[in-house]
Amino acid sequence: MNRISQELLAKLLDEHGPALVLYARQWCDTPEDVVQEAFISLLQQPRAIDNVVAWLYRVVRNGAVTASRRNMRRRHHETSAAHRGEPWFDCPNGQAMDAQLLIESMEGLPIEQRETVVARLWGGLSWEEVAELTETSTSTAHRRFQAAMSVLRERFPDDD
Hints:
This protein folds into two domains: 1-84, Rna Polymerase Sigma Factor, Chain: A (Orthogonal Bundle); 93-160, Arc Repressor Mutant, subunit A (Orthogonal Bundle), CATH 1.10.10. 68% of the residues lie in helices and 0% in strands. It contains seven helices and no strands.
């Protein structure tokens, strides 16, 4: 019944799983759950999907936004303090300050720019796929990317 082979599923998980988690982390504090649900949904599709990677990003984005909204409603009704999610990046020993600065820099970007950077750099999506994912034109996606990179370059000057 399902159109995804075990080999293709394993390949998709290996090649795109970490980037999808990073992408989902922009919106919610349960990115691994969102990505897992996206892969489950992929397995339940009755027909083959033309561009599986772009489809996964769309499903992860929608799931992460939904999870975020659900979490905001829950937090609104709770009296306890909000729990901060995991950091975006695992940093090797000795690079904690750079990783923290990158996290802060990324969090300081508007969500439109941040999602474009993550989808393009860590997700490896083409400009067309980024544009489709963010429901913009390729030129708008590229403009957002360039604006974000300009801000990040200011925070991380090239010392070479």
